[in-house]
Each structure stands twice: as structure tokens, then as C-alpha cells.
Task: structure prediction
Amino acid sequence: MTAPDLAALWLTFRLAFIVTVILLIIGAPIAWWLATTRSRLKPICEAIVALPLVLPPTVLGFYLLLAFNPQATLGAFWVEMTGETLAFSFAGLVIASVLYSLPFAVQPLQSAFEGVARPLMEAAAVLRASPVDAFFSIAAPLAARGFLTAGVLSFAHTLGEFGVVLMVGGNIPGETRVVSIAIYDHVETLQYGEAHVLSATLLFISFAVLLLVYAVNRRPAVHV
Amino acid sequence: MSDDALRIDARLAQDDFMLNVAAGLPLNGATAIVGPSGAGKTSLLRLIAGLSRPDHGRIIFKGETWCDTHAGAFVPAHKRHVGVVFQDGRLFPHLTVEKNLLYADKRSTNPDSRYAIDDVVGALDLHELLQRRPQTLSGGERQRVALARALLSRPELLLLDEPLSALDRARKTEILPYLVDLPKRFGAPMLYVSHNLDEVIRIADEVAVMAAGKIAAVGPLAATLNAHGALIGEDDAVIVEGRVEELSKSLHLARINIGAGVVALPAQEALSTGAKVRLRIHAKDVAISLSAPEGLSIRNALKAAITDIRPGADPAFLDVKLAIGGAPLIATITRAAAEDLSLREGQEVYALVKSASMQ
Result:
């Protein structure tokens, strides 16, 4: 593997890791709210979270590109805070990926939380556990497999991102040039050998990751 | 009455009925909440525990307002210092029995903790179970752990929602003694929801009778149940309180003084002389004689006065209400027998008690 390809691979993993951590942190409260609320806003929020599943990545990418523009609110704010522009930067890639992979974190967490029976949360409450305490001591451990599934799916989905990255990140080596873009480049320039190496690597990793999820999910929720 | 420990005036519309209670509960020892299923017993318990909110109303516990919809006040469940034993135990499946108990112990904030975890583990015989997972416990073991866990949160009020209803007879017999003994020993008043009168008679000192979403009566166990038994389909039996006067080992007999007389009944193993017992006497086990009987196998004949005669559920029978001393008694006899004996109100007769269940 060539140095630029290794750099692309490293960048991709860094991106996927950061995005996964962020998604678990912001996805858990969203999923908990969706799992427990009786609000009429729930279907609207569920639809928004699920949008990236059906939206062409180019559409999401297009709107993000507009938002990242230094003249736009978000873009201007970012320039003021960091002195850099969001478009065609690693930070922009992280934001785009978080949005694009959001359903892959929220949905498994939501169904895991829905499986944590309300009766157990009530039992915790009458044992004087505050809602936050009960979340960490009862809901989170019982939803551990949901966290694993959410983490792995977010990671794997970010690894394979292409359209959104192309729209908001472009193809800057070491900054926004991820594996899928690198493969596209190799194919464009008829470097099939290099394309093979990267593709096979991604194929193997994706399969291994999914195998892990399904193997773990076969086990009973609680060991006896 | 304002000196009741728990005052509750609350309305809550449910899917299929309306809970509408206005009552004060003195909470002396163990109070049973009885009533047919669907009467709102569990809904009431959930309101008291803070697991649901009334549409309108107030709940005040020992001067502290737990809920006042008018003033917008609501103390959430985790701040009420209430222990709950649920019907299904609700042990945390990812924790061992010991960790389930520690979960409660650690979060108990009551500074005067009158007992330690070992006291409760010992009292409920849980030593052998501590390292087990809840899924491996029998129903009876699970409820023992649930009771221990509730006690270890050192509640100021213990709520039990039909804790025995999911258990078979043998398991019930295994746990009942703990329920009779422990709340008194660990010093928390107890509200016990049940539709099983045998349990209630055994455990409770006071009773609140519920029907159709309302609390119909509150008071001492025997008097209240005897007066309002019809509400819970229990108008064919009375509860009589007495004291064990004498135990005969050779005859397996206990002589029990019920105030107006003494009845002899088969003795249970656990009885001791001087113990207070409650007898549940069914109307079909009571016969009437005009004179003191002789040459009968029924040994218990008590002087009684007829207070009321009314048609029974079956047209061939009459329910005859009797007074023995201060205590009531009901006898179911045939119309034919009543005519032959020409029974009337106020008449002095002998009540023959064939059997009674002792609690």
C-alpha cells in the first residue's frame, strides 16, 4: 500500500472513531427521549433522525455545503471560533458524518431502551435512584448491546461514506481524502491494483465488524 | 381526621374507570387495601408511591405535601422515602441478589438506619441466595429478595402490591410469616394490597375497602370487613377475634376465647397459649338450635340472639344474622328449617359452629 493510501486509511479510521464517540454521546439522550416520551413531537423527531437513510447523500451534502459557507450562520460562527472554514476541512467532515450516520446510532439505542422495561425504572425510582442515576445504573447496562450495535454500525457506516464527503470535503490528502474517495480516484486513473487493495481492506473490515455485532447479539442479554 | 398519617384526595381517569378517593389512613401497623380486581387498588398504590400523578387532588404524608395539583407541587417517587414490593418482584436482572440489595442500601438516605443489611439478610434467610442471579430464583425466593430490598431502602412507608398473588400455595405459606413479622420488626407502617382475605386477615390490623374506584370504608380489620364484606363478595363469612386460652396436645385442639364464649378448634402447630387469633367463620358452617344441644358431634354451641333474617343467595335458604356477645355471626339455614323452628328477630338461640379457619 502506498503512503497516500495509508494516510487515507488512517484518516478514515480517525474520522470513524471520532464520529462514533460523538454519536454515542449525543445519540443516547436522543434515543432515550424517543424511547420514553409521550410527546406529540415524537414522530417528527423520528422522521428527522431517519432522513439520512432515504436522502441521497448529495442532497445532505449540498445543504451542508451551503451551511458551511463562511457567509452562512454556522460557517461564520465556525470561522469566528477557530479561524478556519468548515467546508473542505476535517471538522466539516466530522459534522457531516455525524448527521449522515445519526440513524445508525439512534435507532439501535432507541429499541434497546424500549426493551429496558419501564417497570424496572420504576423499581429503581422507589429505591431512591434519581432519573439520571437510574439511567446509568439500570437502563445503560441493560441496553449494553444496543450501545455496541449503535457504535459498530456508526463506525462501519462512516467508513463507507462517499457522497457526503465528496460534496463537503472534496479530496484533500491528509485532510479530507478518505478511503472511498481514494478508491474512486484510483479507478478514475485506471490504477486497478491500488483500488483492489483498498477495496478488499474495506470489505474485510466491514464484514468483520458486522460479524461481531451479529455474533454478540445472538447471546442472551444477561448471563446466568 | 387531620391526624391521619396519610391523607389522600385524588381523582385519576384511567382507560376504563375513574379512581376517585378521599380518605385518611392512620397507618397503624399493617393496613390492607382490599377490593375486587379493577377496584383501583394498584392505581391507588401507584399514586401514593409517586409512580403516577392524579388529574386532580392532594396527597399528604405526615404533614409533608407529596402532591398538590392545585398548587402544582409534586414530590417525585425517588424523593418520597417509600418502599414498594411489586407483584412481579422487579429485581434487576443484571445484578446478583447481593447487588440488588446493595443497590437499595447504598441509596438509602435515612440517617437513623435502625438495621444493617445483615439483619435483613438474616431475617429473610437470604444468605444462600446472595450470589445468585434473579433469573435463577424461584417465585418465593424472588419475593423474599424483593421484600428485603424494599426494607433496605429504609422506607417511612412500605407499599406491597399483591406480593403473593403470583405464587402457588406452598410458596405463599413460605413467605407469609415474614410478611406478618417484618414490617413490625423493621418499623415501617405498611399498606398491603390484596384480594385474598386469608392473607389480609393474617397480616393486617386495619383495612381500607375499595370498590369501583372509591375507598368505601376504613377501620379496624374485623369490624370493617364484617360491616362491608358485601362490597368484596364476602358477605357469607364473618371474622371473629379471639385469644388462645388452652392448647390440648393429645386432642390436637385449641380452645379459643372469643369474648362471648369459648370455641374449640383443631390446633395449628404454630399456636401458643395467649396468642391473638382471628377466626373466619363461614355461614354454611353455622347451624342453629333452640336449646342447648346434647348428643351432637358439633362441640361449639354459643348463646346467640337473632338480629336479622333475610333471603339468601339461593331461594331455598335464609341468612340468619346473630349476635354472640358483641361479635356478629351469620348462619345459612333452609327456609324449611326456619319455619319449623319458627325463628324470628330477637329470639335467643344457640349457634352451632362446625368449623372455622384460623389465621
Summary: The two ends of chain A are 47 Å apart (CA to CA). Chain A has a mean pLDDT of 88. Chain A touches chain B through 22 residues (CB under 8 Å).
